[in-house]
Amino acid sequence: MFFRILDKDQVPSFVEGLAKVYEVVAPVSKGTGYSFEQVSDGSQVVLDYPYTTIPPKKYFVRPQEGLLRYDSESGAVEEAPKDEHPRVLFGVHACDVNAIFMTDKVYLGDFEDPYYKARRENTLIVGVSCMPVPTCMCNAWGTGEVQQGYDLFLTDLGDRYFVTCQSVEGAHVLDTLVETREATEEDKRALEDHIREFSEAFEPASDATQLQLLFDAKYDDPLWEDIGRKCLSCGACSAVCPTCYCFDIVDELDANGVTGSRVRCWDSCLGSQFAEVAGGHDFRPTRASRVRHRFYHKFWAYPAKHGKTLCVGCGRCDVACKVDINPRRIINALREGGAA
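The structure assignment produced for this chain is given below.
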């Protein structure tokens, strides 16, 4: 690991230089918000964005992707080609970098997903610092900073970026495509000022201590029924969550009734049919049971296996939910014994 200073006026040329070798995906203004999109013009990139509507997970876990083609008469099966072209995810916030690293543990764990693996191995991640908005709560989970899972990380120092280089390839493209300089003592003091400003900009953090014990005690709490009555089962929270990774697999038959595709697509545990099995039995038939399952997975089951809460505090679910269900409100209500 080493450090460099990159002047902001060089960022567009850096992006355009990367685009000659890689598919570059970066945050751009779109409608009333921001979205990760493929870019070739560096002036399109917006690095001081608050958050993107959909997290960059869509470039690793596709909203919909074909796995294979089949012919029911001949029995022929043709596997879909893997996405192995080189890509750069540019301008990823620390919370989203941490979310990708958490998703790695699922898709690259005991049973590796070849489609996810191909994309992950062929993607460079360039992170960028941010300042929190009122819905952010990464300070509760310690996900406002990153130690791993990226190649370059840009920390905003006003007219320049403090660049942390973590991989050989990241350092190579930085040194090859733009001019940088070594960090001075003034740069290091500016970095310290940024860290202090960042930590002081948050709303008070939720108490994240002993969450698993709290959830142990609250499994049958009436709070879940109250939340279930509010929940719309729309799945918006899952769609915008950078750590939700549930999917469904469906066969789509062509019009000829003979050939078709097997497709994997995003799914949500809040859906009414998500836990339904053959024979019609549903393990979670009520909205309350589905909401409770989602929170227990994030704050009890995943930490039990991986030692880390499956929430990075990005606040997207807070924005997306139309009935104000979000982790901060749920955890505070469980601790205080009140309504969410």
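Interim note for the steering committee: The chain has a mean pLDDT of 94. The chain has two domains: 2-64+76-200, 211-336.
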